[in-house]
User: What shape does this take?
Amino acid sequence: TVGCVAVDGSGNLAAATSTGGLVNKMVGRIGDTPVIGAGTYANSFCAVSATGKGESIIRATIARDVAALMEYKGLSLREAAAYVVNNVPRGNVGLVAVSAKGEVTMPFNTRGMFRACATEDGYSEIGIWPSE
Amino acid sequence: MGWSIALHGGAGDIPYSLPPERRAPREAALRQCLAIGVAALKASRPPLDVVELVVRELENCPHFNAGKGSVLTTDGTVEMEACIMDGNTQKCGAVSGLSTVVNAISLARLVMEKTPHIYLAFDGAEAFAREQGVETVDANHFITPENVERLKQAKEANRVQIDYTQPVKEDKPQETSSGKGDSQIG
Assistant: This one.
């Protein structure tokens, strides 16, 4: 799976995800990517693109939950994303997300996630494993 | 507050022992796609355009599981899916079951912008692609030797798995992340 989230200087947000699904999946199997609120979601609080085991991501409504925790509980993007990822069985999910305020987070509970990010104030990261 | 962008190429049981010849092209692709997205944001392109542009690049890269690098179904075919969403309007578009569309993310955007619906799948999605005139190719375009091998390993292990799952080697215990994760997922 591949995905991208972006926010501009005015706080406008968007998310996009694309995938071939699981190796050896049954013909006709739908994963999390096209299910709004599971693998992909964006509103005026944040934009999220998730990746991992689709069945787990759908069950946990990952992308929408990140936005809902920000909206209803007032959590920051980083807190909301960490909470959601930590409540899915290990080895099942990673995500990238940005907020209307320009925050960025890329948590995962798998061994690794191919990821990259950059912000206007000069922060950037490209990585695979946590220790980098 | 300023602009920000983040992208991913998939999460899973990516082995620390990933050889350089497999790691380097993936990191280079991430760097290139990030640069494309940053340039578009600096040019004040709308975020919806930016995320579509970056995901198209990632779909065209055979090293990630989307578009050209899509993994295979148990029948050895590809069934691609994609989704795009605009935060301001909460308009969104999604597609599934594509087997000939070069950039599924762009068809998802057309579903969002050209139909009263959100989600089109399989024959309906393929027919919509023809109607919209998006780029399509023979389904074999998406089938790479690497993914044929991955399917073979998964069938041997009788597993449905994410793209980065390590093959089970008889003579060498599998580099597992047990205690650190489920090695069923790659």
Observations:
- Chain A touches chain B through 82 residues (CB under 8 Å).
- Chain A has a mean pLDDT of 97.
- Chain A is about 20% helix and 35% strand.
